[in-house]
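Board work, copied verbatim: Peptidase U61 LD-carboxypeptidase A
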Amino acid sequence: MKLLSSGDKVGIVACSNGLDEKNRNKILNLENVLGTFGLNLVYSERIYKSYSVFNGNGRERAEAVMKFFLDEEIKAIFDVSGGDVANEVLEYLDFEVIKKNPKPFFGYSDLSVVINALYSKTNMKTYLYQIRNLVESNDERQIEEFKSTFMGEGNELLKFNYEWIQGRSMEGTIVGGNIRCLLKLSGTEYMPDFQDKIILFEGLGGDVPKMATYLTQYKQLGVFKKVKGIILGSFTEMEKEKYSPNIVELLKEKINDTNIPIVKTSEIGHGKESRCIIIGEKVKLFCGN
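↓ predict structure ↓
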């Protein structure tokens, strides 16, 4: 799936919490890695914290994103942030302009609100992936697979291993992301339509009561009556602490329907080894694949 070529410019933004100054070296390392691919980084002015957790207000951060969508020389946009405040930018994004100037947008965690809103409002595919994985503990594999997948003809970074919890097949278009953050779109115009979709859930923090609350809200929103399948990614705190009931048990209890296909993977989420999944992409998963 070639998206980028040597010599391309890519935009670096932060729609959620601003980065701490201590991350400057990591971002410089990222620039160096992407530079070895022949990519040229163009930075938003809204990357690092200027006060509290903020790197500008919602309008200012949205303007930084829109600037890159309007710049024909920018071939992809990578969000390097995460946290809590990404939904502040949504009302200031011009989705009609974005629809006329589509380009790959990458982000994860709190950026679940942005990548799902972009898909919902423009039908543009977006990428649940944190580009900073290229300079984290699993960097060698991430670098190799990123380059092959997005600058070559490979698809390694898009392939993930999974186990079947129930069912034997699922087919549909992917929506979702962070189980907590996606709920911020509830009741807004930015929430994707779940009808006949496959929904992905993953999580960083959160104990049993929090996960039970999130899943209950999805149930009360009618999500589980609409989707054609569920992908559970990694749930970092739940799995590290070996909480009981675990996320699979909680989900099965909430949906109480053995006809909904469910798979579990440890390869999509907040782990440094995490792979990429495309929001808006139609996928088919079969038992035995």
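The CA atoms of residues 197 and 227 lie 5 Å apart.
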